[in-house]
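Supplementary Note 3. Input sequence used for the single-chain structure prediction.
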Amino acid sequence: MNEYDFTYTNSCTCANDDDENYSEYYCSGFCWENTLDDFVDITLHLFENNETSWWEVNDLRLWNRDVSGYFEADCIEKLIRGMTVDSEWIMRGKVFEDRIEYSLSHHDAPMGSNTVLKPVSEEKREKLGLY
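The predicted structure, written as discrete structure tokens, is reproduced below.
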């Protein structure tokens, strides 16, 4: 079983694209492309073994509490968006055969969190009514 340690940040080239009707936080540039390429390499087995494209995240530290929930991600950018927040962050963790354990440090959680991400099975997706 392979395990991969990682540390990523989105602060290399990130911006908030403000316009009157729409605002989205995004990252781009060489640094960000390297992050995406590396994270694809170490999480490919999780995508290949995820029969639903749904993911469960547990204990993500936000402003005054830890939150848990589900999100759909069929590519690495959506996966990272579901694992993080819309601000600058540093994510440190380890990819295991069946999950990712990580700590996300950001302005509301400078000390990070103990967060777990894992794929959602078809059976669980149906039980939860996720479509």
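The chain has three helices and eight strands. The CA atoms of residues 106 and 120 lie 26 Å apart.
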